[in-house]
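As practice, study what follows.
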Amino acid sequence: SDPKVRRCPAAGEMPAAGSWAARAAAGAWPSAFTPFTLTCPPAPTSELRAILSAVDEAHRAVPLARMAGAEEAAMLGERAIARLDKVQGVFSYYAYRQYSDLKGDIHNSRMDLEQAAQSAHSDAGGWRAGDFYACAADDLLPYDPLPNIHPIDRRLSLMMPLPGPPLLPDGPRSSAGAARR
């Protein structure tokens, strides 16, 4: 096991008994899905490193998404990269931080990367593109000014519509105003 990788602890590593605080300090409680959790590189310690790490991971994901046929994910990844690619080092980071909307770009790029991860996992399951996009979005999350806003995949809108009220028979319709006339 690589100590540099963030992961959920295994069941044997968790305290079986103890206070809630002890369990919370040890990390997330394992569940039936623990073997399937995503493992990402260590979290960046600064906003600049988070941006550079997210851009690198997105650069790794775009060709994989394109090879797998997930064009929407590739397009979203390229859009996120284009927003953040202007930050190349310390000087450009401080310049864009002071004189442009870098926080807005971080938020919009995180939204694009989360949407790209959803799309890549849906359209290109089995490829690592969705995992790279998810880790890139995870790197930006602590520095996002709106961290609780998340994109919803368009497939959720394909749900069958709920039935409306019953139709009235054809004929004169009565209303409150008709009774007064």
